[in-house]
Design a protein that fits this description.
Helix Hairpins, about 35% helix, six-stranded mixed sheet, alpha/beta, Cytidine Deaminase, domain 2, 13 helices, globular, single chain
Amino acid sequence: MTDIELKYGCNPHQTPAGVTVPDEAGFKVLSGRPGYINFLDALGSWQLVRELKMATGKPGAASFKHVSPAGAAVAGALSDTYRATQFLPDADYSPVATAYARARGGDRMCSFGDVAAVSETVDLSLARLLFDEVSDLIIAPGYEPDALELLKTKRNGAYMVLRIDPAYEPGDIETREVFGFTMTQKRNTALVTKELFTKAGGVGGAIPDDVLETLMVATIALKYTQSNSVCIAYDGQVIGMGAGQQSRVHCTRLACGKADKWLLQQHPKTTALKIKADLPKPEKANIVDYFLLWDELSDIEKDKLLAGLDADPEPITREERAEWVKGIEGICLSSDAFIPFPDNLDRAAKTNVQYVAQTGGSARDAVVTEAAEQYGMTMVHTGLRLFLH
């Protein structure tokens, strides 16, 4: 065992703070000095990405903030439109770099100042991408020498770079102390596989393989998200995470609202925005968010939006929003527990969710199933609850 002194605990006044690292974890801080929350995010995100790799066989990535994923994804192509909406330069991105670009792009605002995690060795392609983002830390199983050299210069050496042995497995029992009370439980070792979504229960037809992959990504992300939680995913990446709400319908509203913004980022009227070229990337992202909330903006907010543009925008109408979202196929919703009321599906339908995974077992399963049938959704009961607290 090795003791590491942390910068501070959850808050700067909580000192001293430290962590005891098992030697078999092969863990090392290669740059920077982590704090307590940094470690929580790093260890949560690392577990998520290694499970993405195990489940899909593809490089996985996550963007974590405050012990929940803002985004998660497996490697995939970055279209010209997607790169433009994320303000990414034209370049040849490695598979692991595409995974992180998709994970971070799932929710740009929540990924600001994130902890990044990837299942693969960090190469120069990913290091260059990270270097230009507002990010606090990365954890990975290894680093190519030129990638590590570049990352060590980020934020004048303050950027945190962590390495962990991908073969490390902790014991089955985990312990936690709260207010002097010590609690133990078996670690959540349940695996999310394709077979989880082919069990009896639910309604609808067969699920295509690409949708099964997306459901796995969403459900694995939920496993490492503070509960209650609902995740919306599309094309192998999270596009809306509703985390830590006491009411499941509020989780759904939060997740769907984020997903709607992600989907509308690629609307022709959004991509046509004439954003001032000299603005930093975070301000460009804020301009887009203001634009997508046009009907809700005050005059002051509209002035801020217009100040960042070289030409007046043409707002997307309510009818155009609905038509655009309705034209996108393969949108998935996963819930970390059963869906108790059909109001969750009422909201999900407005985001054109077509596939739903939930635990099942509610006293109201029949009315929730009826709602899924009414909306033409395919819904499966996994039988697996994935609460995290």
